[in-house]
Amino acid sequence: MGNFKNINTALIHGGISKDERTGAVNVPIYQTSTYQQDGLGKIRGYEYSRTGNPTREALEALIAELEGGYAGFAFGSGMAATTAVLSLLHSGDRVLISSNVYGGTFRVLDKVFNHFNILYSIADTTDLNTFEQAITPEVRAVMIESPANPLMTVTDIAAVAQIAHQHGLLVIVDNTFMTPYLQRPLELGADIVVHSATKYLGGHSDVVAGLAVVSTKELADQIAFIQNSTGGVLPPFDSFLLIRGIKTLGVRMDRHVENAVKAAEFLKKHPAVKQVYYPGLPDAQGYEINQKQAKNGGVMISFELHENYDIGVFFESLKLIMLAESLGGVESLVCHPSTMTHAAIPADIRQKVGITDGLIRLSTGIEDIADILADLEQAIAKSEVK
Ligand SMILES: Cc1ncc(COP(=O)(O)O)c(C=O)c1O
Fold first, then answer.
1. Where in the chain is the domain with CATH 3.90.1150.10?
2. pLDDT of residue 99
3. Which of 19, 46, 50, 262 is catalytic?
4. Centre of ligand 1 from the C-alpha of residue 47, in Å
5. pLDDT digits (tens, 9 = 90+) for 184-222
6. Is 255 a catalytic residue?
7. Pick from 8, 178, 242, 306: CA 20 to 30 A from residue 357's CA?
8. How many CA atoms lie within 13 A of 66 on its CB side?
9. What's the rounded mean pLDDT across residues 17-46?
10. Residue 77 Cβ contacting ligand 1 at under 6 Å
């Protein structure tokens, strides 16, 4: 973790955390598109803000340090970060993706990259044999999430990275659900980490942003070139907001996780609940692997109610917890993956990978846990079909 041994300190002082010129304890918002040059070829380090901006650079240095990478890159959304990373591939290449990935990742491959003859295969990366068998000669990269969205399936990142590297593949991990506070995929052997920083890193549901961190100079040069060429950069003000959000990541995540564990235990015991997916429960798929590679089970929970509960009524009856896309903000949110976050995945694939129409995803916020549980309880009670 760069200069700081402890992540709680690195979150606040990592990367470029202050303004050396003025002593300002926060990096200023350099709201400028261009920079004066002192003469032909005499630049002071910045030429144009698509190529480089000091506020964005401070954020990029911070996330690189937190993830333990060589360099970081900030984009206008998580999808812009993913798109930049997938742009490393060439026509004829194929990427293997886990069976549960964010619907938007599936969509950009299925509907955009296929125009350039960059194809994808879906593999169950929780099963190492199935994963290895899916590596055909044209596969160049593997992209995984662990825990994966929305069934919280856990993939052994170190094992996948090892197998992938034996086949010469690039290993990309979407670390949105965990953040470097809970899991650092580069230390487990991944080559690239991507984030929807819109989620826990920003933490307040007020900014859409994406980050990518790479492990080597070679990858850094390539992504820097793609970032500047395709231009999906994060603006200075949004970079400032993310730096601000990241400073409190540790305290927020501790409370988020504490609440999530209580919510998962509550749901697990509830007679109306058929199934709970939360990697922090000892009987969850991949519990041991997750314990090995992450600090804890994270925050995201999915669950299903029994057939005699109407989930439409459940969503409408919630008073505190809001029905909304996204996750990772201080407020609790729920969503219905099959019609919201994962609607881009065709119904037959959704059914095959277990994203049922009854699945509910909960992003446990940092409100008082008693209020969160009371809200779940009353909405469940109202949704029972008598
Ligand atoms: C795991 C994951 N990855 C990527 C994304 C895409 O990020 P963004 O919405 O910031 O483009 C999301 C968004 O929900 C996500 O949940």
1. 250-383
2. 87
3. 50
4. 30
5. 999 999 999 999 999 999 999 999 999 999 999 999 999
6. no
7. 178
8. 37
9. 96
10. yes
Please tell me the total number of residues recorded for the chain in this structure.
Answer: 386
Please give the Cα distance from 156 to 263 (Å, whole number). Answer: 25
Per-residue pLDDT at 1 exceeds 70: no
Q: Give the active site residue among 140, 199, 247, 350.
A: 199
Which tokens is 239 given? 């970079």
* Strand duo 119-123 + 94-98: pairing: parallel
Q: Do 65 and 10 contact (CB within 8 A), yes or no?
A: yes
With a CB cutoff of 8 Å and minimum separation 6, the contacts of 286 are 126, 146, 147, 153, 154, 155, 156, 279
218 CA → ligand 1 middle, Å: 26
Domain covering 250-383: architecture: Alpha-Beta Complex (3.90)
In the predicted model, what is the mean pLDDT of the chain?
96
SS3 107: helix
Cα gap 198→179, rounded to integer Å? 12
d(CA 12, CA 244): 9
269 in catalytic set:
no
| pTM of the full structure | 0.97
CA 271 / ligand 1 centre spacing (Å): 32
Topology of 7-247 in CATH? Aspartate Aminotransferase; domain 2 (3.40.640)
Residue with tokens 């925050």: 299
Residue intervals of the chain classified under CATH 3.40.640.10 are 7-247
In one letter, which amino acid is 60? E
Nearest by Cα to 219 from 185, 244, 191, 240: 191
Q: Is 250 in the pocket of ligand 1 (CB under 6 A)?
A: no
Tokens standing for 217? 């100079």
The per-residue pLDDT for range 215-231, each reduced to its tens digit, is 999 999 999 999 999 99
